[in-house]
Design the sequence.
């Protein structure tokens, strides 16, 4: 009996570890690397590079994804609408997607910004408009401070850049711990996370509608792989202290800057981060869109592209674009409410 009691926990741990390893392989088979690994000196960084087309009317564009993401997220949002208009580089941040992690400096936005700068050099991109979504906003800010010569302009999309109240979710704290984090990531994250992908991605878009094919196209399950989850947790766990120290330095940013945010963002508080950036960066233009949540890259893609055009020197009234997006979202909300009421009436009858 004692032997059975001792063996049962070991068997359960082995099953959990085996399931995690099996699903990791399955996820990578379902979502293979669509980018290319480049040696940037200390490690290899993954990115999808679209060379400058002959029809380009915009400077190079660098896209930086947020927490729990990978390069597919920004690629699916922007590659199609911007086809034929610019050289584009969609990066897997260090330790995310298919990029290697590199050294401990890459657990901070500053290290990741430096890695992107080296990748640009390897790809022959002298300067670019830097586009950062959510956590990628902290990296875009770091890039603007540390590599002004490579920065044509900065576009922040629902950025996370300033200290905030309330801390972080428990699983980030646990996964960032030395021993317990490894066990958690290798034994429990996969079965728990797979059950939360649907609700989690819906929550990121709320109150807006998530595209029906978003999961299939952007591969959010890649972050559930143990190593990627630990890296992601370390990034998030380090962010508060990092932005607390760096936010006072944002006034050093001199590049033209646009910040696009929604007034209904439940993931990142726009009143702290986006308004804070607009306050701290001289000349920055803040574009606030009513009824918009945390995904302006998908829900207000036209406004984001207008901002890129503006940063490239083209004449664009971004506030007018924002008003058009607000009207579109209001119409969509009304249509969805009407459909829901009709469905309820049918059900009730």
Sequence:
């Amino acid at each position: 009996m004692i032997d059975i009691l001792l063996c049962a926990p070991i068997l359960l741990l082995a099953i959990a570890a085996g399931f995690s390893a099996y699903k990791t392989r399955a996820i990578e088979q379902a979502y293979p690397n669509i980018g290319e690994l480049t040696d940037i000196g200390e490690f290899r960084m993954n990115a999808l590079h679209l060379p400058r087309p002959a029809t380009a009317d915009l400077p190079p564009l660098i896209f930086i994804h947020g927490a729990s993401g990978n390069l597919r997220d920004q690629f699916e949002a922007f590659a199609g609408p911007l086809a034929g208009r610019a050289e584009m580089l969609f990066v897997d941040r260090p330790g995310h997607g298919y990029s290697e992690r590199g050294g401990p400096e890459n657990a901070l936005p500053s290290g990741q910004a430096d890695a992107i700068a080296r990748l640009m050099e390897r790809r022959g991109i002298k300067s670019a408009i830097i586009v950062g979504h959510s956590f990628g906003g902290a990296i875009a800010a770091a890039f603007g401070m540390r590599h002004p010569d490579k920065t044509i302009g900065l576009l922040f999309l629902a950025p996370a850049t300033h200290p905030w109240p309330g801390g972080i979710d428990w699983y980030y704290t646990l996964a960032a711990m030395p021993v317990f984090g490894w066990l958690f990531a290798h034994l429990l994250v996969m079965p728990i996370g797979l059950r939360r992908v649907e609700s989690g991605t819906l929550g990121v878009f709320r109150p807006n509608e998530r595209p029906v094919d978003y999961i299939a196209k952007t591969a959010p399950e890649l972050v559930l792989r143990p190593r990627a989850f630990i890296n992601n947790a370390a990034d998030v766990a380090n962010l508060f202290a990092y932005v607390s120290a760096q936010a006072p330095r944002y006034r050093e940013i001199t590049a033209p800057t646009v910040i696009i945010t929604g007034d209904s963002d439940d993931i990142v508080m726009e009143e702290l981060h986006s308004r804070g950036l607009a306050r701290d960066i001289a000349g920055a233009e803040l574009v606030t869109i009513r009824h918009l949540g945390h995904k302006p890259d998908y829900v207000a893609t036209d406004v984001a592209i207008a901002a890129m055009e503006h940063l490239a020197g083209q004449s664009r009234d971004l506030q007018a674009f924002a008003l058009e997006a607000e009207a579109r979202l209001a119409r969509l909300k009304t249509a969805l409410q009407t459909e829901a009421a009709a469905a309820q009436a049918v059900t009730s009858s």
Observations:
- The chain has 13 helices and eight strands.
- The mean pLDDT is 94.
